[in-house]
Amino acid sequence: MGKRHSGGKLTKAAKTLSSKSSTKSQKSQAGKVLKAHQDRCH
């Protein structure tokens, strides 16, 4: 296990993705955050 979990940013990104009111650009940004996390940590 590397660095401590940056839970806040990830939670926000996941919420953004699941929220119906998010814009397309917000969603793609959030998707990038989650994807990068998965590449690094999983």
Question: Helices, strands, pairings?
Answer:
Layout: H1 7-18, H2 24-41
Helix pairs in contact: 1-2
Could you walk me through the main structural features you see in this protein, from its secondary elements to its overall organization?
- The protein is an all-alpha fold and about 40 residues long.
- About 70% of the residues lie in helices and about 0% in strands.
- The protein is built from two helices and no strands.
- The protein has helices at about 5-20, 25-40.
- The longest helix has 18 residues, at about 25-40.
- It is globular.
- The mean pLDDT is about 80.
Key descriptive features of the protein:
42 residues; mainly alpha; 2 helices
